[in-house]
Amino acid sequence: MTPTPEIPGPTDDFRFRVHATDGAARTGAITMPRGTIRTPAFMPVGTAATVKAMYPEQVRALGADVVLGNTYHLMLRPGAERMARLGGLHRFMRWDGPILTDSGGFQVMSLSSLRKLDEQGVTFQSHIDGTRHHMSPERSIEIQGLLGSDIQMQLDECVRLPAEPKAIESAMHLSLRWAERCRAAFGEQPGKALFGIVQGGDVPALRVESAKALVGLDLKGYAIGGLAVGEPQAVMLAMIEAVEPHLPAGKPRYLMGVGTPDDLMRSVARGIDMFDCVMPTRAGRHGLAYTRHGRVNLRNARHAEDTSTLDETSTCPAARDYSRAYLHHLVRSDEILGMMLLTWNNLAYYQDLMAGLRGAIAAGRLADFCDETRAGWARAEGART
Amino acid sequence: MTPTPEIPGPTDDFRFRVHATDGAARTGAITMPRGTIRTPAFMPVGTAATVKAMYPEQVRALGADVVLGNTYHLMLRPGAERMARLGGLHRFMRWDGPILTDSGGFQVMSLSSLRKLDEQGVTFQSHIDGTRHHMSPERSIEIQGLLGSDIQMQLDECVRLPAEPKAIESAMHLSLRWAERCRAAFGEQPGKALFGIVQGGDVPALRVESAKALVGLDLKGYAIGGLAVGEPQAVMLAMIEAVEPHLPAGKPRYLMGVGTPDDLMRSVARGIDMFDCVMPTRAGRHGLAYTRHGRVNLRNARHAEDTSTLDETSTCPAARDYSRAYLHHLVRSDEILGMMLLTWNNLAYYQDLMAGLRGAIAAGRLADFCDETRAGWARAEGART
């Protein structure tokens, strides 16, 4: 059994070290001036400069090393230039660890109206107040810099699946040209990183072409984008398998917007190092709890007189100390405390899962760990997790 | 300067001791098996078995010795018999200190529909699901017992002001008859208390008649009800002044549903020992902060780039650590964290105010303390507190 290495401290430059592998899976650490990200890592989503319904100290205490900020939301409110005047996103939201920001492109597509996309970039109207904005690759990098982001993402065009191969190819090529422009705009920033995003929809050959071209840009990390947008899990996993051999072993790999606990385990087994997803926080606001025993819908009447807790063995007070009957009552009553407790529980479960995966990879027993975890889910109320 | 006495520990029976007085104001302690309530006390409102947007540990840590539960809400959801099966309200909401419950009467009047009131009690329809319920004085005491309440309130009829003296008198007399029935239903419960409620609207003679008759029932505490329902503050204070000489010095006095920080100070100076009010929690969910410098509306655009905190000298992290610019952003974005932080700040301010009042009474400098506190408010953005 391989001993788990010491957690390395922050470094002046952005670095990634793999400490152990188990099949395609790896565990290691990304280090940078603001701290260390233990990988595989799950990044809680702090859309509008807050991981919803959580104090920042709680997020940190659960073991999150990095949070994600959404460039689209933050550029509209409070605004990128205002954020810079206020001292940047870290100070604003009281998170002193690393922050990753997306490019804003995905949410321009999904949330704003009157989108007009061309070679130059994308013009859109704010979903908040209808104001008109333009986002180019250069402006996306400028905004992420104003926010003070540690890991910045290239602007890309993300195609909804299913889509015609021609449309997927065209978007992938545009994303590559934008990656080059983002790289030029980002320049050299010691201690920070720009990640490229592999596109190509559900077409393996396009995914491979995208990965190879991005690797030619010698970026500090590579994301896989445009997945978890409604396609079957098998398609998502096939795309990871197609891309992974073409990504350098010494750079972190980030699967964007994924996913369920099962998605995380299967993706880690295929070589992914980083994830973000709104699932644990959003589900927590809708009465759903992730537990060792599977997913639990607290809205269900079966919990009305259940004095058991979500998980008496958890170190998270939300899982350990509150009865399901009480959580059921809070959810049915639309009480804020219900959202607070279930979000807390869910993020604790996700972070514990990642810690378990890191330990299992270090110990060379990832497959057993995943089997045991899935067997635990089967003991729940029958809900698939 | 009188030294502040030690805080007494819990006692088998319900007891009240005054440790010091300053004019009509008193400071002391109510002791009972579940703990000690330092008076004057502010009781955070935990309507539906939760002080909204707060973990119970936070409420306790701010210095709250007792919380209030709303019988009307809890009898409808989760239900009184169900609560008893679940082990009572303390265990349900994870609050092991004293709990005071109202009788349910006030919210039957203000929230339910199809109310029909007669000598026997009140019939009404739930505002949640339209189910029909009956509440008699006996049933109110039974429900409060099923909840496990430590301090229970008599059922009363509360008249909206302004009202005709005849209507006020009739409601006051009905409330007295119900007080007797509640007393009989409550019986002898060592360690617990039943409080009577002085009614009589804005008519001093009716208030005095009500107080005298209730004192004749030899209850363990006396509340003043039916105030803070829209009348001017001067009327409320005049009613306290009319009633106070007729209440026994050795029993706690509770002013129901009050109030602003200024209301609390002026009522304490007139001999009130206990308060409850939704103001700090409700205001916190609507972007309003109570501070040493007065009331601050965080929604106001003037705070958009204000990096100062609400109160850098506070021991409450919500007041001390987060910039007004960030709070403004959270409030404008309808983020749950904004409600969490402002509720926390407001309850901290209220509890700090009560601690200040207790210390000032013990030191015989209540008037100076109130003058200094009001002078502090004048430094705020001009908002009256």
Automatic annotation (TrEMBL), chains A, B:
Q: What is the similarity comment for this entry?
A: Belongs to the queuine tRNA-ribosyltransferase family.
Q: Which Gene3D superfamilies match?
A: Queuine tRNA-ribosyltransferase-like (3.20.20.105)
> Which reaction does this enzyme catalyse, per its entry?
7-aminomethyl-7-carbaguanine + guanosine(34) in tRNA = 7-aminomethyl-7-carbaguanosine(34) in tRNA + guanine
The protein's annotated pathway: tRNA modification; tRNA-queuosine biosynthesis
> What name has this protein been given in UniProt?
Queuine tRNA-ribosyltransferase
Report residues binding substrate.
102-106, 156, 199, 226
The record's listing under HAMAP family reads: Q_tRNA_Tgt (MF_00168)
Broad class of enzyme this protein falls into: transferase
- Outline the segment boundaries, as ranges, of region: RNA binding: 257-263, 281-285
UniProt function note = Catalyzes the base-exchange of a guanine (G) residue with the queuine precursor 7-aminomethyl-7-deazaguanine (PreQ1) at position 34 (anticodon wobble position) in tRNAs with GU(N) anticodons (tRNA-Asp, -Asn, -His and -Tyr). Catalysis occurs through a double-displacement mechanism. The nucleophile active site attacks the C1' of nucleotide 34 to detach the guanine base from the RNA, forming a covalent enzyme-RNA intermediate. The proton acceptor active site deprotonates the incoming PreQ1, allowing a nucleophilic attack on the C1' of the ribose to form the product.
Q: Which NCBIfam families match?
A: Q_tRNA_tgt, tgt_general
Instruction: Identify the Pfam families for this entry.
Output: TGT
Give the enzyme's EC designation.
2.4.2.29
Q: What keywords are assigned to this protein?
A: Glycosyltransferase, Queuosine biosynthesis, Transferase, tRNA processing
* Active site as annotated: 102, 276
Highest taxon listed in the record's lineage = Bacteria
Q: How does it assemble?
A: Homodimer. Within each dimer, one monomer is responsible for RNA recognition and catalysis, while the other monomer binds to the replacement base PreQ1.
Question: Which gene does this sequence derive from?
Answer: tgt
Q: Where is the tRNA-guanine(15) transglycosylase-like domain?
A: 24-376
Species of provenance? Methylobacterium trifolii
